[in-house]
């Protein structure tokens, strides 16, 4: 569920997941070369989100952000045992990537696990192969995932009640567009449709 509150000329985006709110301030920036492409920009500039990370690829190799973000990439933080939200969102991302493929633009979908206890490289491979042939799955230690999540200001928390094997995870649901030379440039909310996402991503790619 998402709520919006107007504060002066700025807008505060509140993503409420599992009773916990994560805040991203959005405001205009006349010096931003991508200004015409953004629905919003992050307070403090796009450089306030994203950054270096070290994780483990679905192949089992340790990789850094430099190894992963070699082309425009669409990042999503979730977990393979997610019963509904993650499959829906990741499928939407994959559809947007396919639309861009048809237009001649290559974007890599990336799935970053927030559940290292269960999301082994093998589990990620099965999940990503079902979602998109070019989707890359990333996992890692609890510390590595926490650092990557902190860089993108995402939220996640294991639900301690219920079945210890089939537990659920509360988590934020943004998708992040990251460019090799620019870093993070835009985020997408859940209600953005595949065609809308593809249109906005294409705008950024045309300005690269």
UniProtKB/TrEMBL annotation:
Q: Which InterPro entries match?
A: SCO1/SenC (IPR003782), Thioredoxin-like_sf (IPR036249)
Query: Where in the chain are disulfide-linked cysteines found?
Result: 82-86
Chain residues that bind Cu cation:
82, 86, 171
Q: Which UniProt keywords apply?
A: Copper, Disulfide bond, Metal-binding
UniProt GO molecular function? metal ion binding
| Family per similarity comment | Belongs to the SCO1/2 family.
Q: Which PANTHER family match?
A: ELECTRON TRANSPORT PROTIN SCO1/SENC FAMILY MEMBER, LINALOOL DEHYDRATASE_ISOMERASE DOMAIN-CONTAINING PROTEIN
Q: Mind telling me what this protein is named?
A: Protein SCO1/2
Organism listed in the record? Donghicola tyrosinivorans
């Amino acid at each position: 569920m998402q709520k919006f509150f107007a504060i002066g000329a700025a807008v505060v985006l509140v993503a409420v997941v599992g009773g916990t709110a994560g805040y991203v301030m959005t405001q205009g920036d006349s010096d931003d070369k991508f200004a015409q492409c953004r629905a919003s920009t992050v307070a403090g500039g796009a450089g306030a989100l994203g950054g270096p990370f070290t994780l483990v690829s679905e192949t089992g190799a340790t990789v850094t952000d430099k190894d992963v973000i070699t082309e425009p990439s669409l990042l999503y933080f979730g977990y393979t045992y997610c019963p509904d939200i993650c499959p829906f969102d990741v499928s939407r991302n994959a559809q947007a990537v396919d639309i861009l493929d048809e237009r001649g633009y290559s974007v890599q979908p990336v799935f970053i696990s927030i559940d290292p206890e269960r999301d082994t490289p093998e589990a990620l491979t099965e999940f990503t192969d079902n979602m998109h042939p070019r989707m890359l799955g990333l996992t890692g230690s609890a510390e590595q995932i926490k650092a990557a999540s902190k860089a993108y200001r995402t939220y996640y928390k294991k639900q301690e009640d219920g079945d210890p094997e089939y537990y659920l995870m509360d988590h934020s649901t943004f998708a992040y567009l990251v460019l090799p030379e620019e870093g993070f440039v835009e985020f997408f909310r859940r209600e953005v449709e595949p065609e809308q996402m593809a249109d906005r991503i294409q705008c950024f790619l045309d300005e690269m």
